[in-house]
Structures are given as C-alpha cells and as structure tokens.
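[Meeting: bench + compute handoff]

Bench side (C.D.) handed over the final construct sequence. Compute side (W.E.) agreed to return the predicted structure before the next meeting so the bench team could plan truncations. Sequence as handed over:
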Amino acid sequence: MGRIHTLKFRVETFERAPNGSLIKNVYGWRAHNGLPNQKNLAKFIDGINKSVLPGGVNAHVSRGLGYIPYVHKANLINQFTGDI
C-alpha cells in the first residue's frame, strides 16, 4: 500500500457553462508546475485552456459537453493555511 500525501497547494478553477452556471474544478499543484506563484499559475491555466481546444488532449471533453470549457478565473490556495 502507498502512503497518503497531502499536497501543500491546490488550484481551484472556475468556468461558465452556456446556461450561466459556474463550474468549479480542483487540481493539485505538483512540483513539476514550478514554484507556486501567479506566473506559473497563468502557465498552468493556459495549458488547461489549450488542452480542450480542437486537437488538444482533452478535446473530447469539449465535444462531449458541446462547448469549450474555458477557465476564466483560478486561485492558488495553500491547503494548510487556507491562504489564497
């Protein structure tokens, strides 16, 4: 059995569905993303947004939803202190 490890940081992303509802997704911030700062967060979000475009690795998600889920806001949160 493996060991449970709580990541120090998480990313909460927000997107709008065509019906106007707000959709929240949560991702773990891993070391390969670099230091947890606004510059690296912007790169992370840019990667997510590019992945759902036609030809991206998650293009099937867009096809299944019937729209492109574009992240318009994101927060980088310290999971131990709750600081944004």
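W.E. noted at the follow-up: The chain has one domain: 9-71. C.D. will use this when planning the next construct.
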